[in-house]
Amino acid sequence: MASQRKVLLKVIILGESGVGKTSLMNQYVNKKFSNQYKATIGADFLTKEVPIDDRLVTMQIWDTAGQERFQSLGVAFYRGADCCVLVFDVNNAKSFETLESWRDEFLIQASPNNPENFPFVVIGNKIDMDESKRMVSQKRAMAWCQSKGNIPYFETSAKEAINVEQAFQTIAKNALQHEVNVKIDFHDPIKIDSDTPDNNGCAC
Amino acid sequence: MADMDSLETTVFDAIILGTGFTQTIVAAALARAGKTVLHLDENDYYGGESGAFGFRDLVKWADKVATPVSTVAKADSDKIEFDKLVAKTYNHVEIQLYNANQGTIIDLAPVIDANKGASAEDRAKAIEDYINATCTPTAPSKETNEAIETIASWAASSNQGATAKNFTSVSTHQIHALEELYKTTRKYNFDLSPKLLYSRGPLTNLLISSGIGKYLEFKLLERTAVYEALTDKVEMMPTSKEDVFVSKALSLKEKRLLMKFLQFAVDYENQQSIWEDYRDAPFTQFVQSAYGLTDKVLTAVVYAIGFDGNDEATTADGLKSVKVYLQSLGRYGNSAYLCPLYGVGSELAQAFCRVSAVYGGIYMLQHGLDKHVVDKAANKWQSVVDHTGQTLQAGQLICSREYLSVDMDAYLEARILNRSYVSHCILVTDRSAFGETTLCKTLFPMGSLVLNPGETPEKRNEHTISVLQMCGGTMSCPSDRYILYIWAESDTADGSAKEELTAAIRKLVHIPSDSRSLKAPASSEEPVPESTPAPTSETKALGDASNEDQPRMSLDQEMDMEQVRQEILKAEKKLFEEADTTTPIPSRPSTPGPSSSGSAKPLTKMFQKSKSSVSLVNNGSTPAPVALFSLFYKRTTSWPRVPYPIGSEKLTPLPSNLTLLKPMNHSLDFEAATEEARAVFETLCPGEEFLPPTPEPEDHAAY
């Protein structure tokens, strides 16, 4: 039955350049971190098998590949996303202020069927830095998330691996929830057997 | 950090201007080979001339390219005049919003006249107010207002912009139609230069081998139809071996000849003696004389199977196309063509750009450019200056024509001897023009249509007209709409796209107020659900397969076709045995095909998907689709042919480190552009591998 089919979740990570999108992915999937900042090169997407409520799902986490730097992400990047992660740097006020436009951009480009309920997760990264450098308070970030329909909010450090696992657990869970709903919307019940491999256009 | 400052201090290996299909492959290949790439586009979308748009953006695009760009009389010779060159590329741009003689007609002529002296903007405002006052829409939505505003602006500038000339009246029906299009704008992905991929052609193979195919999703083209002038019918063609067997319209003799030809074509390179004498002769001539194929079979071979867009195909060209076609059959199903979802060229361009970005390519869309800096003494391009005054430098410049400076463009222009164009039409209809078949290609062979019926001298289509119907399943339109892309090569700038393509459109759809087009469906108010008389299990299966729920295909889902091949071989054997015992057979359309005479069971099952092959389209059993909206345009593809004309060497030659890429051609596939990109890469990076496989993401060094 449907619940046994292979589930692939597409997660995209958005946010200003340098907030640590690639580092977060790398920390979560590869448990690796490098201090050396290099504008993203070589990162396409990372995949990880995640157990959610007795199910094993494959999460595909898509990096912007640096195309966000000059607002040049094409519409193809956004397609079919099951969850959108918005990342900012808690030590950089501007990176927080642009979250709104990243969210809008996502909703326009991906144009999900049900924009009000599309799962976003917000991550405030780089909490390992000195408290004196902090520019965006937790309160301010949480207030914004609340105003956008209670977006889950996590404060993380990709460097120290703080809260990264927890954030991605929520991402996976919400993505799965979305994926299941969308599939129900789209699936014509008459074609319930269309998941069988011989339905690819050949009846042999 | 990655900001603008560092760009100015970097000397890139290559700057690429424009994200058209060919540029993007070059960008991906260069970045993949470790070169530093800065890729800019003046547009805010990927794809350039292969861009894909929602409805709103399509209208905006049309208006933009239709509006002449005012420029400085004598521009600096190094200046880049992108908008001007783009506008020059597109001519005869015309939007039509069809009026199905419904609703109340609002005459706009009096308001237009009364505001003749006013500015276009004021005139538009007056017309808008007038429409609003006349039809007083109840509970107008945002889109109602947008529709009225658009119509007012069209009417206000009746002889300018993209709208049909003399737009002097509008019906409430048209307003509703436009409102509906705006409401569903994002469900559309209109493709400016639609094409298909051969399932086993060089581009598809490259997408698979390089790993770039993982970004794309496809549908299989279902059928190919060809218009036959003699019968004035658009007929489905037998386009696979299975089709040939089940075809009821072909005699056994014809089937045998066709099969014999196809078997030869698969291996034509090794049988040079058969076709060597015809190498440079027209393909048609070879097929006719060497294989004695009858007209019907000839049409199938030359158009449905061997036609890739080139009317002047030689035997060598034609055989090459037939072979790619035959190789492509069966790879992903009973069709040779793949069609990417969400618009064709734009999706491919984005996939290649993503690879380029993953390997360090820097992307800047919507980036205005000012001028080129060229070291004239050394004949070397040095840098491009953008709209902010920033100088961007690289060792190589790769671009399409629209990005040339005034000087460079003049040089190119002087070398063009033969003009060439592609006439395009994008048409939205309310139902399929091919009944249950929703993703379908149709060809109107050159000379088969009269473009000016009733007039003398008679004008016929000088080039084959290609039609591609897309459906909701390709994610290019809402599920209750269909897009017909109609295009043809053209040799002259004079004839409009509309004049050159309408004859073909008439054979497929009902065009309101065009009595030569198909008849309007009985009740055009309420589109009747497709009511084919007693659908057989065959047509049912086909219809199901074409639904939106058909599993999409990724390139890694190649099917095991071995069983199919075995079945084909068996059937072939059977066919030949039968043919041998029954020859000669007069051409009898009712001759039962072998499929009905008890072939092996799996085979019968396999054939169920291929609808009885040569069947009439629009034989009256299904109502004709109604044209709702169309956009016509003619795109310049003129390009110099060597040797260059005498005298033009007086102009400053193009810099030695500039690679100029050709405009997208009119062919059905991307193979010429793919080949061009490969050649450019091999010139710039001799000895390096062209788009080698990308390692698995996990293999990338983390940092």
UniProtKB/TrEMBL annotation, chain A:
It comes from the Eukaryota. Pfam families: Ras. GO terms for biological process: regulation of vacuole fusion, non-autophagic. Keywords: GTP-binding, Lipoprotein, Nucleotide-binding, Prenylation. GO terms for molecular function: GTP binding; GTPase activity. Signal peptide: none annotated. GO terms for cellular component: fungal-type vacuole membrane; late endosome. SUPFAM superfamilies: P-loop containing nucleoside triphosphate hydrolases (SSF52540). PANTHER family: RAB FAMILY (PTHR47981), RAS-RELATED PROTEIN RAB-7A (PTHR47981:SF20). Belongs to the small GTPase superfamily. Rab family. NCBIfam families: small_GTP (TIGR00231). This is Uncharacterized protein. The lineage of its organism: Eukaryota, Fungi, Fungi incertae sedis, Mucoromycota, Mortierellomycotina.
UniProtKB/TrEMBL annotation, chain B:
Keywords: Cytoplasm, GTPase activation. Its main location: cytoplasm. SUPFAM superfamilies: FAD-linked reductases, C-terminal domain, FAD/NAD(P)-binding domain. It is found in: Cytoplasm. GO terms for cellular component: cytosol; nucleus; Rab-protein geranylgeranyltransferase complex. Pfam families: GDI. GO terms for biological process: intracellular protein transport; small GTPase-mediated signal transduction; vesicle-mediated transport. Belongs to the Rab GDI family. This is Rab proteins geranylgeranyltransferase component. It comes from Podila minutissima.
